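### Sample
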Amino acid sequence: MATRNAAAGRFLPLAAAGMGFLAGAVTALAAHQRSGCALGERLERLERAAGDAQRTAALAHQHRLHWELLSKAMDDENSALMEVLDAYDPTVPPKKQRQFLYANAMYTSMVFNYRIGNLSREQFYGSVRGMFQNPICREYWHATEHHRSTLDSASEEARLGFLVDRLLRQLEESDSDEWWVVGELPPDGPPPGTMPPEA
């Protein structure tokens, strides 16, 4: 019996050491898995950030090209190019068309700044509200209504256009001299085709 107790006494520390080793291994494995999960999550965040940066760079490139094309058409030396952009019904005189192109450049710049996050939705709305204090900008918006009607109603551009259409209607119907308070920003909801028309 004493021999058995002595043998058990020798194996007990070994068993305890083995259990300690096993517990350490399990703890290390769990930590490694947590670390792996954290690394995976970090990698996903980096991939999203890289995708966002790529999207912003593409938008910036598109915006720059748009501005270059409009600038060429507005330049007196290239006035014949304006005829290419005349998609208004009825046709507008060259001076008015230049003004419309500039109004388009202003609006496009606001949309670009909204899309890349330089303007919040509220700031975009306020900028457009200010732009529409100019009658030429209002006239431009009405003249290009048929252009916007061809947009995919689920697109961001169509949703912004719908928002601006609604704001312009409210500004035109308002008799307030305090234009900066006209037009409450609606909640960001479903695409335009799914919203009931306003009364």
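The chain is about 70% helix and 0% strand. This sample (Secreted protein) is used throughout the tutorial notebook.
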